[in-house]
Amino acid sequence: MKNRITNLFQIKYPIIQGGMIWVSGYKLAAAVSNAGGLGLIGAGSMYPDVLRRHIQKCKKATTKPFGVNIPMLYPEIDKIIDIVIDEGVKIVFTSAGNPKTYTSFLKEKGITVVHVVSSVKFAKKAAAAGVDAVVCEGFEAGGHNGREETTTFTLIPMVKQELEIPLIAAGGIATGKGMLAAMVLGADAVQIGSRFAATLESSAHKSFKETIINVKDGDTALTLKELAPVRLIKNSFYDKIQTLYKSNPSLEELQDLLGRARAKKGMFEGDLDNGELEIGQVAGLIHNIISAEEVIKELVTDYNIAKSLVASI
Fold this sequence. Notes:
Layout (H helix, E strand, L loop, with lengths): L3 H6 L5 E3 L8 H9 L4 E4 L5 H14 L4 E6 L5 H10 L4 E5 L7 H6 L3 E6 L2 H9 L4 E5 L5 E2 L7 H9 L6 E4 L5 H9 L4 E4 L1 H4 L8 H7 L7 E4 L6 E4 L2 H10 L5 H8 L3 H7 L23 H21 L1
Parallel strand pairs: 1-9, 2-3, 3-4, 4-5, 5-6, 6-8, 8-9
Antiparallel strand pairs: 7-11, 10-11
Helix pairs in contact: 2-3, 3-4, 8-14
């Protein structure tokens, strides 16, 4: 499965694990990398000193390439960037911000930079900023999302016709068949979040993992667009959001309801009623909690079978 992405990251399979907050610690990143994909540590839910420890533990847990996902709206981003450089991380995925801010600086340090986008407009801006690849994420994805509500399989070919750099598809992909479909449409690789959230190595709370595998069609929704669009499992907290919307709330009222550490409460601490439960629509295809290695094996096997069937038609 060699292509531009496997060559860029020096990995066996064109499969990247999403750097999800409260889910993507060093155990998951190392497990994915050891299985032949690219594991990412999610810096968005880590204090700087916590991130440093995760990077150091990841280096001990794998000799394979791994990276760090950095949301650029992080309040202590300068410290995060310094730690990434100081610890010798070679791959950085950035999101939720202007790629011009750090791309040149990181590349000068010998770091491969990938930026997450949700539209053709932002994909072109990322390419102009000099990133090595882009992740094109459709609104099927869990967690924070684009405002355009463009689906993954619509976004991929539109970006492909505009850019020359490698393209990674994200959002709504959890199987080898989905992986093949994304690559047929022009992706060089896939980035998968929800399927890896429901793994043994995920740092998510056990109750959240069990909730993921029980999600059905229609159980998630994109909301809080006025603050930052986020896809959530419908629970008591989501119901409170919908009730508040009936009163035409101000931004301040929405922010007050959201409060602080709502995602940590739900995904990491397991408060299924009052926490944010961020997951993608594709959770409806996830029915078990298995190891990250088993996920990679299933993806590759399913991909190869699907590719063979298509070739025989």
